[in-house]
Every structure is written in C-alpha cells, then in structure tokens.
C-alpha cells in the first residue's frame, strides 16, 4: 500500500448556485485498496460527493485531490458505474463495453482483447452479441461494470449500482464484485442505501448526516477478504449490520421532521 | 384463427364490403347522375385505356417526389444538427420554419415558377418544402432528447463534441428521424401532385399526375380521373412501404417499438 492517499478531501464544501450548503467541510482520505462505502439518509449528499470525485460536478471550496491531481486531471484513472446501466441500446454488448476505449482512440484489436477479459470477469462472454434489451436487469448492470473496468481504473466509483435489483440478484452481484476485485486491484467508492451491502463489501463505511451533508462517523469493517456468502451467516457480520443500522437511525431525522428546507435541497 | 392470417383476411373482407357498397351507391343513383361515381369496373377500364399516359405521368411525379423527398432528408438532417446545438439558434429560426410550412403550396408555386421555371425543378422544390418540416422538427427533437445519463457517461469519458454527436446523439435520434420520415413519405407524393397542378409543365411529356388530373377533369373523363387518384394512392403506398422497411432495418434490433409482445 502506498504511503500517500489515493483520494484526499480537505475541508471540501459544495453548494449548487446560490442554494443551501450540500456538503459541509468534508475531510477524509482513502488509501489505495480501500473499499469505502458511503451511507446516509436521503439528501445527505453522498451521491454528490461521488460526483465530485468523478469530476462530474465542481467543488465549491476546499481541496480535493485524486492521486495528487484535481478530479478533472485524474479522469483517466477513474471509472463510474451509475444507478442505471446506461448502456447504448443500439449497440451489442461487445460494442457497449468498448465505448470508453473507442472514445479514447484505442485500436479495434486492442479493444477486443480488453473486452474479452472484462466480459469474462463479469461472466457474460455468452452474451457478447446480445443487445441490451435482451438482457435481464442484473446482466445489464454487469455489462455496465465490465465497461467501467475496461479502462483498468485505479478508482472505481459506484453510485447505488444495485439499488434497482431484487435482493437475490443484489447479493450475487455483491459477491461477484468482490471476486472481481480479488483479480483487479482497484479502490472503490460505493454509495448505497443498504447497510447489509455496505458491511459485506467494504473495509470502511462513512456514515453521513444531512442538512448540510457532513461525515458523521466512520466504521471499520474488520472481516478479512475474500468474503463469501458464508460471511453473511456469521454472528459478527450480523452484529455489525445491527450496529451500523443503529448509527444510521441516529442520524436519520425523526419522523415528521422532514422540512421544506430538506425538499428544496 | 392465427393473427397473421387475420392481417390479410380482414382488409380483404373490408375491401369487398366497400366495393359492394360502391356498386350499390352507383346503381342507387339516378341514371343521369351515375357519372358522379363510376363503378370500380369502369375505373379499371379507364386505367387500362389510359395506361401509357398515366404511366408517363406517374414516372414524372415520382421523379419530382423523390428528388424533393431526398433533398428534404439531406437538408433537414444538416439543419437539425445546427438547430440542436443551442436553444438560441432554435428560438431564432423556428418561427421562420413555421412560416414556410404555413404558406400554402398554391401560393408558393407561382413564386417557385418565377425562380426556377415550371416543370420538374419547381415540383421537386415544392415537394421539398412540404416534406422538410416534419423531418427537421422530429430530427431536432431527437437530437436534443438524448438520455441525460448517456450524455453524462460520454462527458465522463471526455468524448469530443463530434464523438458525442456521431456516436450518441445521431443514433439516439434515429427513431425520431424515422417518425418524421414516415410523415414526410405520406405527404411528399401529395405535395408533388399538387405542385404539378400549380407549377408543372406538360412540355415534352413532362406532365405529372396533377397535370393529368386537370386534363381528365376538363374533358369530363371521370373514370380516368378516379384512375389517376388510384395511381397517386399506389405511389404513396410504395414510398411508405420503403420507409417502413428502412426503419425496420435500422431499428428492429434495439428499439422498444419493435419489441415482440409474445416474449
């Protein structure tokens, strides 16, 4: 593990236009190899935080460095997996996976090598020639992940990628994601609503509170990798899920406290 | 019964009913008034007797319709790309595009004749004007309606504006383009016939179906007039079928409108 942090937030603030503060003095660092989950109530700015790292939205104040660079300069080192699979419906799976490389002008032969590798990682080689509409929701998401991995990113940003899937598919994909990470050494930022998912995947969980978005606390997840379906059955896992849920409840606004200010934020 | 067979039997049955009613009306009319609705048999006979003139006219009209239609596709696509670039450009130009569409063809026709002379050039130009509007409006709408998530994805991978246009916006706009194309294919033959009536030229056998209709009408050859109408219909059907086939080739692999319901 390198001594210098891969991602460094120093007093980062964010507001949209003249609106209220969305993120308030966020400071933390992520090291290479971290699997860091961000959870918190709706409107706590966890997705916004991820978009700042991805360079999809500029920071308002403070310093945000990725591998010592600004997010815009670090574009080549990171990949983003959105909530939706965001596949191009008119392209077959193969061409979809190759889109990022094609945009960077990578020659076709080289693209094909990478495409075969990443489709094998997500176990979708059989669907190479399928169109997105022929795939299930889980398969589409795996194509989306394969596409993100095609550029061999140092940092993978995932914004609730499994939120729209059923529980079974979600658990399978969680296991698959960790299995892929055994072969590919990327660092991950993972936004989720699911405490169970965060505990299963991460070595660190950042719990955020809302209005404005702040980091409430950090929880270390001590279970060693590789984690499997067995991990979910263990007592320490259940205890930690309960513990994180308790913390999350403590930062959730009590019922009826959702004010007009929250909605406009 | 199988739905496929129904698709053939139902229109045929409806057609038989229409022809029966048609004959009934004809013979119900007073003998002196029967010229108002010639029987299908008389129309077919007129079609046979006037075949050389109608064929020549149909070819001339098709030429005008296709030239105008083709020109409309090329120009509208280029203009749609320009319009898609910014709301300012759209706001500035839309009123004038509307104005062009609002001006009736018989009014535009003489202006066109002054500019390029009567005949094929005028007919093509007027067909172009009529087919152009639905194409440019639909294609522009398609180019600016690209899924925001996909635009963001392209931004994330630092796609150039040209890459974004060619690899994302144009393919995403294709379903809209084909909607415009189907409307244009329906009105282009009609436009060509009306243009022919108002700006056509019969010099050197250059007259089209519009011209032919005017001639038959003045000579009180009513069955031949009905036959001309039938030929116009057939032209419209052929152009529409070609566009539907083209849309199927471009879209059926991926677009939801071609999703089979029995999956």
What topology emerges from the helices and strands here?
The complex is a heterodimer of chains A (265) and B (263).
Chain A: E1 7-15, E2 21-30, E3 35-39, H1 46-53, E4 61-66, E5 78-81, H2 93-103, H3 108-121, H4 137-149, E6 155-159, H5 167-183, E7 187-191, H6 195-201, E8 204-209, E9 214-220, H7 235-251, H8 260-264
Parallel strand pairs in A: 3-7, 3-8, 5-6, 6-7
Antiparallel strand pairs in A: 1-2, 1-4, 8-9
Helix pairs in contact in A: 2-3, 2-4, 3-4, 6-7
Chain B: H1 3-28, H2 40-49, H3 51-85, H4 87-102, H5 105-116, H6 120-144, H7 148-156, H8 161-199, H9 209-218, H10 222-251
Helix pairs in contact in B: 2-10, 3-4, 3-6, 3-8, 3-9, 5-6, 5-8, 6-8, 8-9, 8-10, 9-10
In a nutshell, what does this entry contain?
The complex is a heterodimer of chains A (265) and B (263). Chain A is an alpha/beta fold and 265 residues long.
Report on the architecture of this protein.
The complex is a heterodimer of chains A (265) and B (263). With 265 residues, chain A is α/β, with parallel strands linked by helices. Chain A has helices spanning 46-53, 93-103, 108-121, 137-149, 167-183, 195-201, 235-251, 260-264; strands spanning 7-15, 21-30, 35-39, 61-66, 78-81, 155-159, 187-191, 204-209, 214-220. Chain A has one domain (7-264): Rossmann fold. In chain A, helix 2 (93-103) packs parallel to helix 4 and helix 6 packs across helix 7. Chain A is globular, with a radius of gyration of 19 Å. The model of chain A is unreliable at 258-265 (pLDDT under 50). By secondary structure, chain B is mainly α. Chain B has 2 domains: 1-37; 39-255, Orthogonal Bundle (MetI-like fold). In chain B, 81% of the residues lie in helices and 0% in strands. Chain B has helices at residues 3-28, 40-49, 51-85, 87-102, 105-116, 120-144, 148-156, 161-199, 209-218, 222-251. The longest helix of chain B is centred in the last third of the chain and has 39 residues, at 161-199. The chains are: A alpha/beta (265), B mainly alpha (263).
């Amino acid at each position: 593990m390198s001594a210098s942090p891969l991602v460094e937030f120093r007093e980062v603030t964010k507001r949209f236009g003249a609106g209220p503060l969305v993120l308030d003095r966020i400071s933390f660092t992520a090291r290479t190899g971290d699997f860091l989950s961000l959870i918190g109530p709706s409107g706590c700015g966890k997705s916004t935080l991820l978009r700042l790292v991805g360079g999809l939205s500029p920071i308002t104040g403070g310093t945000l460095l990725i591998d010592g660079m600004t997010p815009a300069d670090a574009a080549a080192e990171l990949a983003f997996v959105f909530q939706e699979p965001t596949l191009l419906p008119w392209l077959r799976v193969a061409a979809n996976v190759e889109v990022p490389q094609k945009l960077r002008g990578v020659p076709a032969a080289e693209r094909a090598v990478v495409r075969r590798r990443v489709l094998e990682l997500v176990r979708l080689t059989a669907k190479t020639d399928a169109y997105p509409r022929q795939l299930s929701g889980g398969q589409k998401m795996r194509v989306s992940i394969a596409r993100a991995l095609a550029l061999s990113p140092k940092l993978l940003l995932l914004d609730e990628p499994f939120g729209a899937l059923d529980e079974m598919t979600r658990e399978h994909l969680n296991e698959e994601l960790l299995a892929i990470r055994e072969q590919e050494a990327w660092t991950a930022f993972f936004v989720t609503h699911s405490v169970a998912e965060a505990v299963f995947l991460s070595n660190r969980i950042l719990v955020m509170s809302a209005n404005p978005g702040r980091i409430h606390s950090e929880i270390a997840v001590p279970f060693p990798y590789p984690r499997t379906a067995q991990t979910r059955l263990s007592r320490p896992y259940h205890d930690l899920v309960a513990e994180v849920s308790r913390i999350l409840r403590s930062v959730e606004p009590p019922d009826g406290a959702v004010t007009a200010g929250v909605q406009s934020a | 019964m199988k739905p496929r067979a129904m698709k053939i039997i139902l229109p045929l049955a409806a057609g038989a009913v229409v022809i029966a009613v048609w004959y009934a009306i004809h013979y119900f009319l007073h003998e002196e008034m029967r010229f108002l609705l010639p029987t299908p048999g008389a129309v077919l006979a007129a079609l046979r007797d006037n075949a050389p003139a109608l064929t020549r006219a149909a070819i001339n009209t098709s030429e005008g319709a296709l030239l105008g239609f083709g020109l409309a596709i090329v120009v509208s696509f280029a203009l749609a790309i320009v319009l898609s670039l910014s709301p300012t450009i759209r706001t500035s130009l839309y009123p004038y595009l509307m104005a062009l569409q609002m001006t009736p063809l018989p009014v535009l026709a003489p202006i066109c004749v002054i500019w390029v002379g009567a005949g094929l050039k005028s007919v093509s130009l007027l067909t172009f004007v009529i087919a152009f509007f639905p194409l440019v409006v639909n294609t522009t709408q398609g180019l600016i309606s690209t899924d925001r998530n996909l635009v963001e994805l392209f931004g994330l991978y630092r796609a150039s504006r040209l890459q974004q246009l060619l690899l994302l916006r144009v393919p995403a706009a294709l379903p809209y383009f084909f909607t415009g194309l189907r409307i244009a294919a329906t009105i282009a033959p009609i436009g060509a016939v009306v243009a022919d009536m108002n700006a056509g030229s019969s010099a050197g056998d250059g007259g089209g179906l519009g011209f032919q209709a005017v001639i038959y009408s003045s000579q009180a050859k009513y069955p031949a007039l009905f036959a001309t109408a039938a030929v116009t219909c057939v032209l419209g059907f052929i152009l529409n079928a070609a566009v539907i086939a083209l849309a199927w080739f471009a879209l059926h692999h991926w677009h939801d409108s071609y999703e089979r319901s029995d999956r």
